[in-house]
Amino acid sequence: MKNSTWFKSVMCLAWLVLATTLRAERQILPILSGWKFIKQDMDVAAPAAGWESVTVPHTWNDRDGGAASGRTPPNIQTPAEAAATAAAAPKKRPVIKTDDPHMKDGYYRGIGWYARTIVVPAEWQNQKRVFVRFEAVSQVARVYLNGRLLGEHRGAFTAFCFELTAHLTYGATNELRVQADNSVLADVPPLRGDFGVCGGIYRPVALVITDKLCISPLDNASPGVYLTTKSLTDKQAEVEVRAIVSNGTKVEASVPVEFHIKDARGDVVALEQKTVSVAAGATASVAAILSIRNPHRWNGRLDPYLYGVTVNLLDHARAADAGGAGLPGRSQLSAVGASGGGRAARRMDGRQPLLEREPAA
After folding, report:
1. Tens of pLDDT along 185-221?
2. CB 194 within 8 A of CB 171
3. What's the DSSP call for residue 65?
4. Mean per-residue pLDDT of the chain
5. For the chain, what percentages of helix, strand and coil (3-state, to nearest 5) are there?
């Protein structure tokens, strides 16, 4: 699950959730190089041969973005030059006179286009499912495949995922295009701040290839597996593990699902199996409660112990797909606060600190 897991004042464990397969291995294929880019709005079918060649992560504000706060980006200056520029910078952002409506904030806020070709093997047809996952695009993204709009994502800081399977030409070259837009939009935060909202595909992109039956990557681009600590004592922990199973076939499927937890040494400490029925072209949620005897609690940097959680979809007793999602847990934590000139997060019961104390500044 792409969303951050927050510190909470509850008793729970810590998990390292793995995403591996044994038979039909899920493939994660990064697509970072080979992109074409142009900093202006274009027709979705416009030829891209003359566009600039870039790799992602990429932003079109790498040089002018510092104008948002009166700074010149340090990546185009020496350290000494950057320090001198910062010292001489006005407290208020300079107003740059321009007739370009995209430069009202002193740096380009508008539309840019990206294009990339992908070659899809013929043998994937009717055998595999193909997804594209973006870790983030600023701040509105419209994604096209072979000229067809797959969908739109609004927001610069979250991942999103689209399925390509039904729209691919197998055994041939396909074209993926992304229209990115960092214009000022009333419904897309942040609306203001002492920083720039740089536009572009500024986090990695990857293709995800699975079997027709898979753990869905489409639920907010998460791994499709969720953990909840139901109870925790020194003698026993109970953990709910829930998975979203997606059926890409044309018939209903009865899918055996295996849940297991391993300790830090790799030994299995809890194992359950469930069966879920999933209609053709649909998804279904399946969950199991797993128990761990004498659980080892996570205690920050002093004892960063992790359990591993894996969910397998089984095909004739073999793993057809697998996935997981992390829920780093804590043992009765309070918020981080200042104490004695340093910082330390402490347990609510006042015993051992979560983190070693940092030296006073």
Report:
1. 889 988 877 778 899 999 999 999 999 999 999 999 9
2. no
3. G
4. 79
5. 10, 40, 50
Task: Report the distance separating Cα 173 and Cα 276, nearest Å.
Answer: 37
Separation of alpha carbons 325 and 19, rounded Å: 8
Whole-number Å distance between alpha carbons of 134 and 201: 8
Angle at 192 between CA 187 and CA 198, to 5 degrees: 85
pLDDT tens-place string over residues 243-295: 999 999 999 999 999 999 999 999 999 999 999 999 999 999 999 999 999 99
Which of 202, 190, 203, 204 lies closest to 68, judged by CA? 190
Rg of the chain in Å (alpha carbons): 24
C-beta of residue 70 within 8 angstroms of C-beta of residue 88? no
Are the CB atoms for 160 and 153 separated by under 8 Å?
yes
Return the half-sphere exposure (C-beta side, CA atoms, 13 A cut-off) of residue 84: 5
State both tokens at 346. Answer: 């402490």
Residue 11 pLDDT greater than 90, yes or no: no
Confidence at 345, pLDDT banded by 50, 70, 90 = very low
**Cα–Cα distance for residue pair 242/69, rounded to 1 Å:** 44
Model confidence over 136-157: pLDDT tens digits? Answer: 999 999 999 999 999 999 999 9
Q: What does pTM read for this prediction?
A: 0.76
pLDDT of 328 above 60: no
What is the side-by-side strand order in the sheet with 140-145?
52-54, 35-38, 111-120, 172-181, 140-145, 148-154
Token couple for 135: 């870790």
Which of 15, 18, 16, 19 is CA-nearest to residue 329? 15
Please name the amino acid found at residue 115.
Answer: A
Residue given tokens 């800081």 in the structure block: 157
Q: Are 133 and 217 within 8 A, CB to CB? A: yes
> Is residue 256 within 8 Å of residue 275, measured between CB atoms?
yes
Between strands 148-154 and 140-145, the pairing is: antiparallel
Question: Rounded to whole angstroms, how far apart are CA atoms 324 and 15?
Answer: 10
Neighbours of 343 (CB within 10 A): 15
